[in-house]
Amino acid sequence: MTIDNPVFFFKCLGDETRCRIMLLLAGEGELCVCDLTEALAEGQSKVSRHLAQLRHCGLLEDRRDGQWVYYRVAPSLPDWATVLFARLRTDYAQWLAADAARLQQSRQQAESACS
C-alpha cells in the first residue's frame, strides 16, 4: 500500500504521538528530534521510534546536517492529506497549544544559552 491509499494513511497516523508529530511538522516545516522531544514532552527513543514508523510509511522525509537529523512532511503527500493537516491544525489548535508552547519555550532557552 502507499500513502495515496486513505486506509494506509490513517493507519500510519493511528497513534496520538505520530499524529502530534505530523501536525507539528505541518506547522513548523522542519524539526530535529531534540525539538520534537521537547515539544511532545516524550523521551528520545519513543519519538525516534515514531519518526521511523512515519518515514517507513512515506509520510516524512529526513535530511542530515552534521550530527543532526531534520524531519519534514513528505512533499509527495497527496493534496487531500496536506489540506487535512492544515484543517486539523486550525480546528484543533487548542489541543496542539501545549506542544507549540513547549517548542517555543525550548527555542527561547536555547537562544538565551547561546547569547
TrEMBL record:
The keyword Transcription regulation applies. One of its GO terms (biological process) is response to arsenic-containing substance. InterPro entries: ArsR-like_HTH, HTH_ArsR_DNA-bd_dom, HTH_MetalResp_TranReg, WH-like_DNA-bd_sf, WH_DNA-bd_sf. GO terms for molecular function: DNA binding; DNA-binding transcription factor activity. Keywords: Arsenical resistance, DNA-binding, Transcription, Transcription regulation. Pfam families: HTH_5. Gene3D superfamilies: Winged helix-like DNA-binding domain superfamily/Winged helix DNA-binding domain. Residues 1-92 form the HTH arsR-type domain. This is Metalloregulator ArsR/SmtB family transcription factor.
